[in-house]
Amino acid sequence: MGFPEVRLRRLRRSPAIRRLFDAPPPPPAKFVWPLFVVEGERRSEPIASMPGQNRMSVDVLLRALEPVAAQGIGGVLLFGQTEGAKDAGGSGAFDERGVVQRAVPAIKRAFPDLAVMTDVCLCAYTEHGHCGPLDRHGQVDNDAANGLLARVAVSHAAAGADVVAPSAMMDGQVRGIREALTENGFEQTLLMAYSTKFASSLYGPFRDAENSTPSAGDRKGYQAAYGNPRAALRESVFDEEEGADILMVKPALFYLDVLAEVRRRTDLPVAAYNVSGEYSMIHAAAERGWGDLHAMARESLAALDRAGADLLLSYWAPRYRDLFG
Ligand code: PBG
Ligand code: ZN
Dihedral (C-alpha) 183, 185, 190, 196: value to the nearest 10 degrees? Predict the structure, then answer.
């Protein structure tokens, strides 16, 4: 049978009919809010390129989390930075008195229902802004980076992080971190690998927020190339074999095909990182009157859900109620 007996528009004739068949929005528990933590007290500095997001000291952060936790958001992903001197190896990242190491137990105590995740990298702590120390040719030294990343992960686990999330894209970082966690008695700590993370032009606002732009060169020698999707998929397969508990595709909206493919290839949970550039471009368009802010945000998040993301790492998380009611 075909037209005129079949009329596809019947299923969307009225709000009452459409509502019967509309997929529900992703629940708040799927959302994780990426946060920028800074030293000091009473600090809340708006990030110009990320409207609505602030760098916060721990005291301010705890207050900001109250309405967020009340909405039933699943967790937070913490990014730290240092006021102190940066160095060649980013040693501030594993300082036990660092901001992330202090923020974790404070959040756990105040909000036992939130999963506390930490980004494990060195770029906000190295003087050159790369995700690991440089060798004498100026390349990131993979194996030296791994030793440092393992120290960072152990320091976060010791602070009580539920999930550590290595984002440096070093070969073997997941194995090294898993081994270090086990050796140090943190066998219950979850490991969420930034497994397929692309060298992307969408991280600009984040690098403003984190002050982590490389002073020379770029990250193409370690982050995946979007021109080579097979190699990018291998990165996720590899991290599963190395002991990751959760895989991730990042960025998310420009890589829905990759997200769906990773989802198909693994039985691990898959996270989608809805990155800073994806968030900020929607704000920029809305500010110019080129689209409705909330409608664009909802539509983009529905795409991530539909592509199979189990977790949505998104700067929209604190706005859940505004978006989905
Ligand atoms: C650093 C890191 C980056 C992001 C998360 N961890 C930036 C980068 O790789 O340069 C990007 C997040 C975002 O843009 O929202 N390892
Ligand atoms: Zn990094």
Answer: -20
- The pick from 208, 275, 282 for probing ligand 1's pocket by mutation, whose C-beta has the most ligand atoms within 8 angstroms, reads 275
Per CATH, the number for 26-320 is 3.20.20.70
Q: If pLDDT is split at 50, 70 and 90, which confidence band does 212 have?
A: confident
Which pTM was predicted?
0.97
Other beta carbons within 10 angstroms of residue 306's beta carbon come to 13
Give how far the C-alpha of residue 198 lies from the chain's centroid of Cα atoms, to the nearest Å.
Answer: 13
Task: Please write the tens of the pLDDT for every residue from 104-150.
Answer: 999 999 999 999 999 999 999 999 999 999 999 999 999 999 999 99
Which listed ligand is nearest to 315 at the C-alpha?
Answer: 1
Q: Pairing between strand 247-250 and 311-314?
A: unpaired
Instruction: Give the max Cα distance, the chain.
Output: 73
Indicate the Cα dihedral angle 107, 319, 209, 170, nearest 10°.
70
Helix (H, G, I), strand (E, B) or coil at 260: helix
Residue 108 near ligand 1, beta carbon < 6 Å: no
Q: List pLDDT tens digits, range 145-157.
A: 999 999 999 999 9
> Which numbered atom of ligand 1 lies nearest the CA of 212?
10
* Partners of 36 in the β-ladder: 55, 79
- Mapping DSSP onto H, E and C, the string for 161-179 reads CCEEEECCCCCCHHHHHHH
Domain ranges within the chain, ordered by starting residue = 26-320
Backbone phi and psi for residue 137, each to the nearest 5 degrees, phi listed first:
-95, 0
88 CA → ligand 1 middle, Å: 19
Question: Would the CB of 222 count as within 6 Å of ligand 1?
Answer: no
pLDDT in tens, 155-181: 999 999 999 999 999 999 999 999 999
